[in-house]
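Input/output pair, single chain:
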Amino acid sequence: IDPWKAWEARMEGFRVMPIRAAAPLGDIFITNTGEERVIRMEHMSVMKDGAFLANAGHFGYEIDVPALEKAAAGSRVVRDEIEEFKLEDGRRLYLLANGNIINIAGGLGHPVEIMDLSFSLQLASVHYVLSTPDLEKRLYNVPVEIDEMVVRTKMAQEGIEIDEDTRNRE
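Output:
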């Protein structure tokens, strides 16, 4: 686990602790580590009734779903992408998107407005690279002009107006 990310979370006001300490305390658990079986049955067995489990990491194996399925007395789909697992002691745990990466596997995905901006920015960036032959072969940040052009175009399409920058830009 990345210690800098843990420290960053602490500096943003979150309580930081090992999962074994957090498991009986939390209501919502979201993994984002890239590690296998970060949340195991030993942790799920002490979670509160009604706890939610989601994975935002790199692969669909951060939550030990097979162990949860094996330990559960039963399960049912309560709504799209939310499965309730009833444990032997009656507690219920809710697994989102079957433990797969929530922002990709989750039924609603990214809003189309975000995808519009993402694809527009990618296309404008490709155009910039192809039309600027003297660029070195390395990574570049997207130029501010392209970034602003994309968002201003989207805002105009949506009928959104904002004030212009009044600073003197020379």
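The chain has a mean pLDDT of 91. Residues 112-130 form the longest helix (19 residues).
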